[in-house]
Automatic annotation (TrEMBL):
Name the UniProt record assigns to this protein: histidine kinase
Source superkingdom: Eukaryota
Region described as Disordered: 101-120
GO annotation (BP), single: cytokinin-activated signaling pathway
Task performed by this protein: Cytokinin receptor related to bacterial two-component regulators. Functions as a histidine kinase and transmits the stress signal to a downstream MAPK cascade.
Subcellular location: Endomembrane system
Originating gene: gn00459
Enzyme class: transferase
Catalytic activity: ATP + protein L-histidine = ADP + protein N-phospho-L-histidine
Molecular-function annotations in GO: cytokine binding; phosphorelay sensor kinase activity
Principal localisation: membrane
Enzyme Commission code(s) on record: 2.7.13.3
């Protein structure tokens, strides 16, 4: 192939990749905006009303009916802050007890908030049990989200920053690979320049969206013409060794293009890598 033809090919790959990256980024952004709106809904109709106007059934139905607004999520869940002092009364009110996420037999990702280490720290100072969940994630109801490493880090970062945050891809309780996006609900409105400590203290709940990357990115890319001809991989490149979020293993050093993705959480980095399926 002439160098001019190679250049043409490279350009075509670059623009196809950028288009896909932009589309994915936009859909994620739209989804995250609606998660934030859902956090405001819970604040308004659960926390600011006595008695609450939302129960599990109402939440699940509303979440299901507005799922089209969150194209990359496969579900949403809401966890509340419960201090150790409040635990007994909370459990009596709910009629169930707060459960830890990973018993030592099914734990997946060891870390500070996880199985072995949390045995020592028991009882925890506070918990974040899920009280509402979309039907597909009913199995997380009553689980303490502070007892799982990725969920814990996400919640702590979300409530200290007041912004939407993302986990790295990890294996969810349903054994699928996913990314969780979290927004915090606060007791009252906070001025934009509020101190971090005040933010943390004012937190009362955590709204999470579950991104089922494999299934949903696939669906998204299939909607595009020319999907057959290009291979797409999405990586979380926050740490030195990138974590694959989407796509199959690729080998060889043939031509590929990297498009950067901005998913709105400045402490996480993502990239899309594209290559042609067929050699010229
Ligand atoms: N939701 C569903 N499945 C999971 C999971 C999760 N977290 N963690 C592991 N498997 C209520 O950030 C707050 C949802 C966490 C939100």
């Amino acid at each position: 192939m002439s160098s001019q033809a190679v250049e043409k090919r490279r350009e075509a790959l670059g623009s196809m990749c950028d288009e896909r990256a932009r589309m994915l980024q936009d859909q994620l952004n739209v989804s995250m905006n609606h998660l934030q709106a859902l956090a405001i809904l819970v604040s308004t109709f659960h926390h600011s009303k006595t008695p609450s106007a939302i129960d599990q059934k109402t939440f699940a139905r509303y979440a299901e009916r507005t799922a089209f607004e969150r194209p990359l999520t496969s579900g949403v869940a809401y966890a509340v802050k419960v201090t150790h002092e409040e635990r007994e009364q909370f459990e009596r009110q709910q009629g169930w007890s707060i459960k830890k996420m990973y018993s030592s037999k099914n734990k997946n990702s060891p870390g500070p908030g996880d199985a072995a280490s949390s045995e020592i720290r028991e009882p925890a100072e506070e918990y974040a049990p899920v009280i509402f969940a979309q039907d597909a994630y009913k199995h997380v109801l009553s689980f303490d989200m502070l007892s799982g490493y990725e969920d814990r880090e996400n919640i702590l970062r979300a409530r200290a920053s007041g912004k939407g945050v993302l986990t790295a891809p990890f294996k969810l309780l349903n054994n699928r690979l996913g990314v969780i996006s979290t927004y915090t609900v606060y007791k009252h409105d906070l001025p934009p320049n509020v101190r971090e400590q005040e933010r943390i203290q004012a937190a009362i709940g955590y709204l999470g969206g579950i991104f089922d990357i494999e299934a949903l990115v696939d669906k998204l890319l299939h909607q595009l013409a020319g999907k057959q001809s290009i291979l797409v991989n999405v990586y979380d490149t926050t740490n030195e060794s990138p974590i694959s979020m989407y796509g199959s293993n690729v080998t060889g050093d043939d031509m590929y293009h990297v498009s950067t993705l901005n998913f709105g959480d400045p402490s996480r980095k993502h990239e899309m890598h594209c290559r042609f399926m067929q050699q010229p």
